[in-house]
Amino acid sequence: MWRPTSSKNMEFVRDLGADEVLAYDLGGLNTTTEFDFMLDTLGGSSYGDALKFMKKNSVVATIISGRDAVRPDYIDAVEEERQLTVKFVFTRPDGRNMNHIRELVEAQKIKPVVAEVLPLTIDGARKAHRLSQTGRVRGKIVLSNNN
Ligand SMILES: NC(=O)c1ccc[n+]([C@@H]2O[C@H](COP(=O)([O-])OP(=O)(O)OC[C@H]3O[C@@H](n4cnc5c(N)ncnc54)[C@H](OP(=O)(O)O)[C@@H]3O)[C@@H](O)[C@H]2O)c1
């Protein structure tokens, strides 16, 4: 597994299980590895930059919609040239999916990372929204009525 991050999070990403960690703020992304699969959580030009590391006929799952990031024009051509299969994945927070995620957590196949727990109040929601807008949150922000 290969993962770009900022230099401050390199150790954290290595601990999550990445074999190779590249910091986007230390001279750009470069590797000789070619990939069969990419999970895109950024979109935009970061996604475009990562496409050059994909093998021909490889697969991309993206969680980014047109509302999350502007898609540069050249991306269609690169996806076509590499003959990528690109799928948009959308989370449906229903009981069935939540139970499946719980099972994966219990089986330690997913390691949840909680950045901050805030009270389930208007002020808590406001603070959570502001935090989320920084684009720097490491993990999930939880609103809880247990604090
Ligand atoms: N399809 C769905 O079901 C679904 C569900 C949830 C979220 N989303 C979308 O997914 C996107 C990501 O959401 P998120 O909750 O992860 O929050 P986020 O605030 O977009 O992501 C924060 C993380 O991204 C990292 N990051 C920022 N720029 C980066 C870059 N150039 N290269 C590598 N890492 C970078 C930050 O690390 P550094 O501080 O190290 O840069 C930080 O840890 C959002 O656009 C959201 O709308 C989609």
Topology (SSEs and partners):
Blueprint: E1 2-5, H1 10-15, E2 20-23, E3 35-40, H2 44-51, E4 54-62, H3 75-81, E5 85-88, H4 95-106, E6 114-119, H5 122-133, E7 140-144
Parallel strand pairs: 1-2, 3-4, 4-5, 6-7
The chain binds NADP nicotinamide-adenine-dinucleotide phosphate.
Provide a concise account of the structure shown.
By secondary structure, the protein is of the alpha/beta class. The chain has 5 helices and 7 strands, in the order E-H-E-E-H-E-H-E-H-E-H-E. It has 2 domains: 2-88, NAD(P)-binding Rossmann-like Domain (Rossmann fold); 95-144, no CATH class.
Features:
147 residues, alpha/beta, Rossmann fold, 2 domains, 3-stranded parallel beta sheet, two-stranded parallel ribbon, globular, binds NADP nicotinamide-adenine-dinucleotide phosphate
Strand residue content: 25-35%
Low-confidence stretches: none
SS summary, helix count: 5
| Largest sheet composition | 3 strands, parallel
Order of helices and strands: EHEEHEHEHEHE
Radius of gyration: 17 Å
Distance between the termini: 37 Å
Q: Helicity level, as a percent range?
A: 25-40%
How does the helix and strand content classify structurally?
Answer: alpha/beta
Q: Assign the CATH class of the largest domain.
A: Alpha Beta
> Any guess at the CATH architecture of the largest domain?
3-Layer(aba) Sandwich
Number of strands: 7
Strand order of the largest sheet: 3-4-5
Q: Which distinct ligands sit in these coordinates?
A: NADP nicotinamide-adenine-dinucleotide phosphate
